[in-house]
Automatic annotation (TrEMBL):
Name by which UniProt lists this protein: DinB family protein
Organism: Kurthia gibsonii
UniProt-listed InterPro entries: DinB/YfiT-like
Superkingdom of source: Bacteria
Amino acid sequence: MQSLVKQLHFIEKTIVQLFDEVNEQTWKEPEAKGLRSVFELCHHMTYLPKADLMLASSASHQEMDAFYQRNRLETICEMKQMFIYHIKQLYAHIECMSECEKQRESTSYWGATYTQQEWILEILMHLIHHRAQLYQLLMQHREKPISICLFQ
């Protein structure tokens, strides 16, 4: 589990760096039909650690909808702060898990069943996926490359 936490720290750092690259002038413009804007993607990433932990605790579809409805932010600064807060909650959750708890299974509302340790891996992969999306979207709005290393 320590290796997952180590990777999570790196992913957190690079996502925060990417949030710092967001230009609020263009961040609400949709990129293409059916795709998230930079704003929508950042908002999703902000709540991802908390929301995915809720899913790992078998939250219902209605509970997830209610969570997203009552959690709305408007600025990238707010999103960055909330993302850091949710990541810290994730670290605390991981730290408190016993070996027995890591092996406990839970099922999402759509039927995916994982151990708690596998859910942590899912959260890690989910963050990596959206980090790459954000990097690509930001690169499309820049004349020069972003100098953030996404891999160690």
